[in-house]
Specification:
With 152 residues, the protein is α/β, with parallel strands linked by helices. The radius of gyration is 18 Å and the shape is elongated.
C-alpha cells in the first residue's frame, strides 16, 4: 500500500483591531488600528475512508474556518486590545465606554499575539491534524510568523 502523503492546507482571514503598546517609545504607544491578515496552515494525511464525506481532505476548509473564527476572529475582530497593566481607573472607563475591550497578560504586539493565536487554535484541531504555521500581517510590509517546529 502506498504511504499516505502528509499535506499542508492554508486558510486566510482578515480582521480589524485596535491596540496600544504601553511604555513603547514611539507613536504606537497611542491607540491605533490595523487591518490584520492571518494565515493558518495545518498538516495531516488526507482522509481515505470511502464512507467519510470528507474523503481526500486533510480537514474541511469550512471546519478550519469555524475553529479560527471561534478561537480568534470572534474574540479579536473590532476589539481594542491592551496590556492589562494599565491603571484600574483607565481600564474600568474603557470597559464602560466600549463594548469590546480586551486586556491581555502580555503586550499586544504581533509577535506575542501570533503565539497566543497558535495556542488558541491548536487545541481545537481534530486528531491527526497539526498546526504548522501562522502568519500575522499587521501592515502591508510588516508581519510576524509562528512555526510549529520552532515552538515544540
Amino acid at each position: 500500500m502506498k504511504k499516505l502523503p502528509l499535506i499542508r492546507i492554508t486558510k486566510e482571514f482578515k480582521f480589524e483591531m485596535a491596540h496600544a503598546l504601553k511604555g513603547y517609545d514611539g507613536p504606537c504607544q497611542n491607540i491605533h488600528g490595523h487591518s490584520y491578515e492571518l494565515k493558518v496552515t495545518v498538516s495531516g494525511n488526507p482522509i481515505i475512508d470511502e464512507n467519510n464525506p470528507k474523503l481526500g481532505m486533510v480537514m474541511d476548509f469550512g471546519d478550519l474556518k469555524k475553529i479560527v473564527k471561534e478561537a480568534v476572529m470572534d474574540v479579536f475582530d473590532h476589539a481594542l486590545v491592551l496590556n492589562n497593566s494599565y491603571p484600574e481607573g483607565v481600564s474600568a472607563e474603557l470597559k464602560k465606554t466600549f463594548d469590546k475591550v480586551i486586556f491581555l497578560d502580555y503586550q499586544p504586539t504581533s509577535e506575542l499575539m501570533v503565539d497566543d493565536f497558535a495556542m488558541r487554535i491548536k487545541t481545537k484541531l481534530p486528531d491527526g491534524v497539526l498546526l504548522k504555521y501562522l502568519l500575522l500581517r499587521e501592515t502591508v510590509t510588516s508581519y510576524a510568523e509562528w512555526f510549529a517546529e520552532e515552538n515544540c
